[in-house]
From TrEMBL:
It holds the Pfam family adh_short_C2. Keywords: Oxidoreductase. InterPro entries: KR_dom, NAD(P)-bd_dom_sf, Sc_DH/Rdtase_CS, SDR_DHRS6-like, SDR_fam. GO terms for molecular function: oxidoreductase activity. Belongs to the short-chain dehydrogenases/reductases (SDR) family. The lineage of its organism: Bacteria, Pseudomonadati, Bacteroidota, Sphingobacteriia, Sphingobacteriales. The keyword Oxidoreductase applies. This is NAD(P)-dependent dehydrogenase (Short-subunit alcohol dehydrogenase family). SMART domains: PKS_KR. PROSITE patterns: ADH_SHORT. Residues 11-185 form the Ketoreductase domain. PANTHER family: DIHYDROANTICAPSIN 7-DEHYDROGENASE (PTHR43477). CDD domains: SDR_c (cd05233).
Amino acid sequence: MADYTYNFTGKTILVTGASSGIGKQICLDCAEAGATVIMLGRDEERLKQLLYQLEGGSHQVITGDLKDEQFIERACQGLPLLDGVVQSAGLMKLVPLKFINAAFIDEMLAVNLRAPILLLSALQKQKKLKPASSIVLLSSVNGVAVGSLANSVYGATKGALQSFCKSASLELAKTNIRINCIAPAMVNTEGTAKISEHVSAEAIEADQKNYPLGRYGTPADIAGCCLFLLSGAGSWITGSTITIDGGFTAQ
């Protein structure tokens, strides 16, 4: 019988984008549930600070840039067998259509689409994923459910990620490995806080009123769903996208 509790004792979970925001919260929650967490990110100092905050004592830190394909290959070689992977690393930049250029497109694709695909490919090739393991990709409501101003390239990368998830789920199902996307709307993180540099506090307050539940999300809102998908409770879910948006796209 499947274990429907969030007891991750004995499980090893890899989390990318672990140094801040949603990724950081997922690390904290997975460790609290008993997992050994392998944190991957670019900011070594932040990752080390997080390491001291995690419950348990066997967690690991991997520092590097997921835009580097050789780094991905090397990082995967040093990994133990994994019960779960959460790909939370991502890049969002507001750029109006008339200012988009090839370099910007390449950067967004490299972080938001190419990196998660290459990482999963390397893990599969090197046989680092246990049978019945679970993979969670962080997508967005932007690009599939809704559009937003100056966010077209970001939305395109996230829409492509959801498309990739569907086809990848068919290949991975042969070994009972599941892969799903979580698509949040606006979540208060260090990254989205930068929007306040360009948008007034009044405008942000007004925008939150567009959410039926009256607020933006928190990293904990997303982490809770992530743990569900990593656990036995999500054992018959694959190739799907779960929207977490405070009712925004229900309107």
